[in-house]
Design a protein that fits this description.
Elements lengths: L2 H40 L4 H16 L2 H11 L4 H5 L3 H4 L2 H27 L2 H9 L4 H31 L11 H12 L2 H30 L22 H4 L1
Helix pairs in contact: 1-2, 1-6, 1-9, 1-10, 2-6, 3-6, 6-8, 7-8, 8-10, 9-10
Length: 248
């Protein structure tokens, strides 16, 4: 293995990693906003609300992410109406197509995480909030969502890590992310092992940082569950200590 090739390619790979992080970060923000709306629609009683939300989740969780990327990047461009519309300015760019596909995909998975976390909030607390006259919006904002955030945080951390690794598929639509840069350089110097190994180390570093960040967030949000420092044990009868009654 040629270490010099790996070192020389590091600046270009880090540049691709920056594009990967930007793509993943924007997808997570857009996906979380959509996921919150989809999760609330899934919990609604009206079939006009939960049925479209269920269809959205079913489709994007049931089809491969690569197929979704191709549908957005290659599929929409075959329609003349799309090419003639103002949205073509966005859809003709591989970055925005990948961002749309990633956002929709992570929104479907995150919606199920949010829905499960909301349903895991103890019903007694919700009923108590109703008893004191809290509106539904107030209950969601002050009782349900803060606890759901803590409950769903570990599962959401896994979703973030999976999206970071799945972002390598963006290179299939000519996007020069981390994997795309590694493939481009290796096609020139014919050293794919060195380039892909260095890319794998960068991915590993990113996932390690994300893992530690979520561990820290879980620790900070679980302060009420941590055991307080144990009190000093009282001396036993045979310890030699004199009790106040014996001192008299």
């Amino acid at each position: 293995m040629n270490l010099q090739v790996m070192i020389d390619a590091l600046p270009a790979l880090l540049g691709g990693a920056g594009l990967t992080l930007r793509l993943v970060g924007l997808a997570l923000v857009a996906g979380f906003v959509m996921a919150l709306a989809v999760a609330l629609a899934r919990l609604a009683r009206s079939p006009f609300a939960w049925m479209p939300a269920y269809g959205f989740v079913f489709f994007f969780r049931g089809t491969p992410l690569l197929v979704q990327i191709f549908l957005v990047y290659y599929g929409l461009s075959q329609f003349a109406a799309v090419r003639a519309s103002p949205v073509w300015v966005i859809l003709r760019e591989p970055f925005w197509c990948a961002l749309i596909a990633f956002s929709l995909n992570t929104a479907a998975y995150t919606a199920e995480i949010v829905r499960g976390a909301i349903q895991a909030v103890p019903r007694g607390q919700v009923e108590a909030a109703k008893a004191i006259g809290m509106s539904r919006l107030t209950r969601m904002r002050r009782i349900v969502l803060p606890q759901a955030l803590r409950i769903g945080l570990p599962a959401y951390g896994n979703e973030v890590i999976l999206l970071i690794k799945a972002s390598s598929l963006a290179s299939t639509v000519t996007l020069l992310d981390l994997t795309g840069v590694a493939r481009t350089i290796s096609s020139v110097n014919y050293m794919p092992v060195e380039l892909l190994s260095m890319a794998a180390l960068i991915y590993l570093t990113m996932t390690f940082i994300v893992t530690r960040a979520f561990k820290l967030a879980e620790h900070l949000l679980s302060g009420d569950r941590r055991q307080p420092p144990s009190l000093a044990a009282r001396p036993g009868p045979g310890s030699g200590a004199v009790s106040p009654g014996e001192a008299k």
